[in-house]
């Protein structure tokens, strides 16, 4: 596979953290080229490339930009979603820590395309190193005339601010992020209106993931056709970062063309840990439905995974081998969602906790025969009617547990005996 | 305007109307908890899920506006019904089953929707219900008590304090299944409208400290009425059991108080319960007030006020608590005894503001009907004494007799100095419900009905005429003031023998320009701004 990594090309080269070093590696050329274009041309270019959002939902990036109303007397904002908090996901951190200027360049490009003079990088609170590196890079960029009143002397103004989150998963949801950014309680807003019309501080706002913005740099640099030449098809294009964790020989972040098969990814990671058998894997972070060893030839792209009943999400691939208790693993995910539900909407607030309680009962050997049926009836009510996608996300892993590992649940119900040694689920849900 | 079809019924609504409101237009009630027409839409209870043709998922009706023509909505399709049932189940798994001791029982959104959209059994059988320890009785402020275990996290109260009272005392704390509402230490819920959060709370989480455990709501008789706390004239529902008023609740009137009323207004009925009351007509004999028949009493007043002497005529002192009709009869009485002394006393109170969509109303009088009483003719005639002269100066000495038409006309009715001054008249008749020091000093006492026990109209600070009706009968021998005055008038003119508030109002409307063209039976439920305020002197 003749694939040349672009997003991660500067990894392990600390000199690119300065503007000078980044320029030496070919950086900020795309920005210079874009500033000579009309903003609409830039949007069309991104549309043509087929770039879909790398944060999880996979919404076409160019289309999202084109929803921002032209003109108007309100300021517009770019908000970069760097609140990477989906369990299993650690790709954006890499980009920010190793190549901060690539992200800054992407932010300015997005700002130029939609006419925004300000970017807020909403970064996960725990990413202290990444935040520090970004701050330093931003300071440097102001000094070198990359940011500020006249970006690269073009007369286009752009400011970038880093805003650190305070540790809530829900602030990774775009409207929850906006609320948090505005200094309010981080909880999703009801949509419509969509952020492109009424976003941060009541103004039109584009929210893009870190990786998405980094992709834009390379689309401008190498053209839409280059980007389209990578990937599965017209709708799944470009390079993709896969964050692999779990029972593989070499966990880590891998840049591969979008749409590689799981087996190919697994091979890139050196195969299963100690050669054990694969039992289950999650393709796109905690929210995605689990897949099994039967699905290893599935292409890891948006549409193929959706067809398979799961999703690419943030492409955080979690691999579980035969030693894993999937009920316990799912309980752990369910506990996460119950803990992270913001509590405003009924199905998510009550449903995530109820799912956790049922799973906990089954896992600890106190389950009863009807529990599988009960779980199967409760789960569909949690997603679909919740206010934001967290309800759907919480539903994903449990649903796939029931569908694919029904026998294991039954086995837990019948053969486990209470009391068993309890796993300390870092006291999730015990926050009374 | 776009047309929307809801459950097969089409209606044209303004673009942007949400589906909950649009459905009401065609008589379909979409269940909801968090939605309130005056609060921002947060779409978080998820009770109002409906099916919208062309949308892949169910939509929350409250946050779905009618934007384009031809929307087709189904509120009771199997999918929607299943969603509503699921939400009810979620809301109930952790809700305590303490309805028997919950004040909200009987008017509880959770009970009502359980009945309509819920199920009779629970699948939440193994785990313990979530509780908020030590949070069953949290006084959020002087008027509101929180029981967190009953809360369904709809955040109506939070939004009320942010958006309507604009005081922001209530917040939403913690998250997930432990999300709760509360106040910040040192910032209790203490604003003039605070009890409104009890009204809008769909469950029994917020209860009124005034009404707590006072009565089961299904025993209450509810009658539309008007608050007498100030001259805003908030529309209320007067709720009583066998004549004992238990609470006032705001009654929706977009022109006046919208959905709200102030805490002070809610407390005004407590005087009828706490203050002593006169219930028997009485006449002073040998220095002592002794019970007498109504006939004797009215005869005594008739003799007392008719007497005309060289040193003066009878003065009449009314108040802002009289109905327009009562005031009209008093004015009539004054004319018959040729008295120009038609005084009215109204305490001025602190400004009481009620928000509504037009920016709100501020009331400044401590009585509801100064304007109506004055329009009905209770204003001093030429060289007539005013209330100031009567109560604070030597006015009483210049009168042959004084007829105080409201024993509770203001704070002065309890001032011994004022009582002493009024007592200087040769004859003092006092009508009213309250057994004030003034009533005890009178020669004749006429026990009258309270606000709850009579019909009439008030004219508020915006000159809006509002009608109210009797909620309960007056106790013992007390009678509505209108009846007493009419019987007294019939001693002069036979035509007053049997009149009602309705007939008096219609007569008044013929005579007083400000009310011209109005008829009692045609006063709209929301009241009506007086067509013309010119020529008010004509009534005098």
CATH topology of the largest domain in chain A: Rossmann fold
Quick one: biggest sheet of chain A? Answer: 5 strands, mixed
Element order of chain A: H for helix, E for strand: HHHHEHHEHEHEHHEEEEHEEHEHHHHH
- Our measurement of the CA-to-CA distance between the termini of chain A, rounded to an integer number of angstroms, reads 53 Å
Structural class call of chain B reads alpha+beta
The CATH class name of the largest domain in chain B reads Alpha Beta
Domain count of chain A, please report it: 3
**Unreliable parts of chain B:** 534-540
Radius of gyration of chain A: 22 Å
Total beta strands of chain A: 11
- How big a fraction of the residues of chain A is strand? 5-15%
Going by CATH, the homologous superfamily of the largest domain in chain A would be NADH-ubiquinone oxidoreductase 51kDa subunit
Count the helices of chain A. How many? 17
Walk me through the topology.
The complex is a heterodimer of chains A (432) and B (540).
Chain A: H1 19-24, H2 29-35, H3 39-49, H4 61-66, E1 77-82, H5 91-98, H6 100-114, E2 118-123, H7 128-143, E3 159-164, H8 174-181, E4 205-209, H9 210-222, H10 224-228, E5 231-233, E6 236-237, E7 239-246, E8 252-257, H11 262-268, E9 278-282, E10 291-292, H12 302-307, E11 316-321, H13 326-340, H14 346-363, H15 371-382, H16 389-404, H17 406-415
Parallel strand pairs in A: 1-2, 1-4, 2-3, 7-11
Antiparallel strand pairs in A: 5-6, 7-8, 9-10, 9-11
Helix pairs in contact in A: 2-6, 2-9, 3-6, 5-6, 5-7, 6-9, 13-14, 13-16, 14-15, 14-16, 15-16
Chain B: E1 3-6, E2 9-12, H1 19-25, E3 49-52, E4 59-60, E5 71-74, H2 78-93, H3 109-117, E6 138-139, E7 144-146, H4 156-163, E8 170-173, E9 180-183, H5 196-200, E10 206-208, E11 221-226, E12 235-241, E13 244-250, H6 263-267, H7 270-274, E14 282-285, E15 288-291, H8 294-306, E16 314-319, H9 324-336, E17 342-345, E18 348-354, E19 361-365, H10 370-375, H11 387-392, E20 401-404, H12 416-422, E21 427-432, H13 437-440, E22 444-447, E23 456-459, E24 464-468, H14 481-490, H15 501-511, E25 528-529
Parallel strand pairs in B: 1-5, 16-17, 16-20, 20-21, 21-22
Antiparallel strand pairs in B: 1-2, 3-4, 3-5, 6-7, 7-10, 8-9, 11-12, 12-13, 14-15, 14-22, 18-19, 23-24, 24-25
